[in-house]
Specification:
Layout lengths: L6 H4 L89 H8 L6 E6 L2 E6 L4 E4 L2 E4 L14 E3 L4 E3 L5 E2 L7 E2 L6 H4 L8 E4 L2 E4 L5 E3 L7 E3 L1 E6 L3 E6 L3 E6 L38 E6 L3 E6 L4 E6 L13 E2 L13 E6 L4 E5 L4 E4 L3 E3 L8 E6 L7 E6 L4 E5 L34 E6 L3 E6 L4 E5 L34 E7 L2 E6 L4 E5 L35 E6 L3 E5 L4 E4 L34
Antiparallel strand pairs: 1-2, 3-4, 5-6, 7-8, 9-10, 11-12, 13-14, 14-15, 16-17, 17-18, 18-19, 20-21, 21-22, 22-23, 24-25, 25-26, 27-28, 28-29, 30-31, 31-32, 33-34, 34-35
Length: about 625
């Protein structure tokens, strides 16, 4: 019957979730009348949602009950194509709750040293090392010694979920009682530090190798420490070092026994392998005596001893070493003939003569006897220097007020301007004029070469006068200065060092300055590389050379604390080592050969070893 006919109104069809499909047994036939007395009416749950086969969770997938592929149309995060997470759901609709992808999701959450897997809808994390615990999302080693009181202090050894009582390395004991520190320094073969001097320092549970303050070096092995040098003296063909504890060593040319090695024959040292280090003996200064200052000349070496006396060794033709026999040489038991009741505070050595500054400020020289210079009354000398060669001897003295006076040792010394005034033999020493250094300027130090003189001024500037044939004055020409008053004072230019100096040294025909930074600059004659520039060109005789002069390369990070100059140049480094460069005809550079250093590229800096002076 067509739908909507009046007969449908009295026999409504019942449809709902419990209706049997057409053709099924017991299905109602709409064409037959219904006996309401037999079939009870179906109850309808008004609260149940209607089956609408729509995409209820709006994820683009219909429910499976309606022919779709969404296994959970109530959760938009569940449908094929997604990955399982560890949440107790079949997120990818593959029929497996928390599948393999869930383990991967958990692994991404595991901290370093841990693994994670999905179990019962949550990630289970564990540390891979059995001795580690998971603490605040991190794997932390389990401390089995925490709270343990059965071991001695410091002897509990943390194991794997267990502990043991064992004294650590460097200690002795059972571990269950106190552990005692072992002194590794008692066994030289165990610690490997230099034992001469003992460079091993014990510390709790271990030790370290460190040279004592009197030495420097790596402290490892038999020669790991070398005795520090306190001051040095560069002479003609020889070098001497005053080491800690007042000991002295000299090397190079041994003419007339000026190295102080003793014996009846002169023997040069330093020009062949194996002659330095511990093989080089100390100078015998006398029973119980030590040195406080050194000076090296052309044929004589002198030292101020700890008691204020002076001991010299070398040529004695004029009585410099104090021995009565003028034919004697080398080192003897004699002392220099100082005036009775006086002590020396500084000394200088020449060729056959010695010079000393006494404790009362007087200055003099001796051969057979001591002769004081008759300087202005009431003025004390604080320091001095003398020219290194006999034929050009002159002396310059620095006085308390900062004035400088210079004069010849002998009247026949040629005047090259090195005195800073026109020397007149008729002028008595008491009337020697002061060298004019410039308006308001005073001196802090003097240094003399063969025929030139230099002064370190109170402002750190350096001025030089005298012979200048090799540019040793450092003023950019070869003209001598000092013989005429017009050359001096404000007219005398300072050396263009680029920075203040704190010390100067001169020898032969070259000059060196130690700057306040610890750098060293040298100028003048350079025939054997004594300027340390890797070539043999004279510097200071042409305009602009000093302004561009680089510092001597002493090695990476090395700075000098003192300098001295003979025919070669030397620097005392701030670590107590000594390096020398220039001429090396007798081994004065202390390198175990006769090769010059500083005259060719690649011979300075790290390529120039410090002199090995031994323990």
């Amino acid at each position: 019957m067509p739908a909507g006919s009046d007969s449908d109104a009295g026999n409504p069809s019942v449809a709902g979730p419990d209706a049997a499909p057409a053709g099924a047994q017991g299905a109602l036939d709409a064409s037959q009348p219904v006996d309401t007395s037999v079939v009870a009416p179906l109850a309808v749950d008004a609260a149940a949602p209607p089956l609408d086969c729509l995409d209820d969770d709006k994820d683009g997938h219909e429910a499976r009950a309606c022919g779709g592929d969404d296994c959970n149309d109530d959760d938009a995060a569940v449908y094929p194509g997604l990955l399982d997470g560890c949440d107790g759901k079949d997120n990818d609709c593959d029929g497996t709750v928390d599948g393999s992808a869930a383990d991967l999701a958990c692994s991404a959450l595991a901290p370093s040293g841990a693994v994670a897997s999905c179990s019962s809808g949550s990630c289970a994390v564990r540390c891979t090392d059995a001795d580690f615990d998971l603490v605040a999302a991190a794997c932390v080693r389990h401390d089995d010694c925490a709270g343990v009181t059965s071991c001695g202090v410091g002897s509990c050894v943390d194991g794997v979920r267990a502990h043991s009582c064992v004294c650590p390395s460097g200690y002795a004991g059972s571990g269950s009682t106190a552990c005692t520190d072992l002194d590794e320094c008692l066994s030289p073969t165990a610690h490997g530090c230099d034992t001469s001097p003992l460079a091993c320092i014990n510390q709790p549970g271990s030790f370290r190798c460190e040279c004592p303050g009197t030495h420097f070096g790596s402290a490892l092995g038999a020669q790991g420490c070398a005795r520090r040098v306190v001051s040095l003296a560069a002479g003609t063909g020889s070098t001497c070092a005053l080491l800690t504890e007042g000991k002295v060593k000299c090397w190079g040319d041994d003419a007339f026994g000026k190295l102080g090695l003793g014996g009846s024959t002169a023997t040069a040292r330093g020009g062949a392998p194996g002659q330095l280090g511990d093989a080089l003996p100390y100078v015998e200064l006398g029973a119980g005596r030590t040195a406080r200052a050194l000076a090296a000349g052309s044929d004589v070496t002198c030292s101020v001893l700890d008691d204020g006396s002076v001991k010299c060794w070398g040529y004695n033709g004029y009585g410099a070493i104090g021995a009565a026999d003028l034919n004697s040489f080398g080192i003897t038991s004699a002392l220099a003939p100082l005036p009775a009741g006086h002590k020396a505070v500084a000394v200088a050595a020449g060729s056959g003569y010695g010079f000393a500054l006494l404790d009362d400020g007087a200055l003099g020289r001796w051969g057979r006897t001591f002769v004081a210079y008759g300087l202005p009354a009431g003025e004390r000398v604080t320091s001095f220097d003398r020219a290194p060669r006999y034929e050009d001897y002159h002396v310059c003295a620095l006085f308390e007020a900062g004035a400088v006076r210079c004069w010849p040792v002998h009247p026949f010394v040629p005047d090259m301007g090195q005195f800073g005034w026109a020397y007149d033999a008729s002028v008595p020493p008491q009337s020697y004029p002061s060298v004019q250094l410039g308006s308001g300027r005073t001196a802090r130090q003097v240094a003399l070469g063969d025929a030139h003189s230099c002064a370190l001024l109170d402002d750190g500037a350096v001025k030089c006068w005298g012979a200048n044939d090799k540019g040793q004055l450092g003023v950019g020409d070869v003209f001598a200065r000092g013989a005429a008053a017009a050359d001096m004072g404000d007219a005398l230019p300072a050396v263009a060092l680029g920075a203040p100096a704190r010390a100067i040294a001169a020898g032969g025909s070259h000059t060196c300055a130690l700057l306040t930074s610890g750098a060293v600059k040298c100028w003048g004659l350079n025939d054997a590389g004594q300027l340390g520039q890797g070539h043999t060109s004279t510097l200071g005789d042409q305009p602009g050379e000093l302004e561009l002069l680089p510092a001597v390369d002493l090695g990476p990070g090395q700075r000098a604390s003192a300098i001295d100059v003979g025919q070669h140049s030397c620097a005392l480094l701030d670590n107590g080592a000594v390096k020398c460069w220039g001429t090396n005809s007798a081994g004065e550079l202390g390198q175990g050969d006769l090769l010059t250093r500083g005259a060719a590229a690649g011979t300075m800096g790290a390529a120039l070893p410090a002199i090995a002076l031994g323990e």
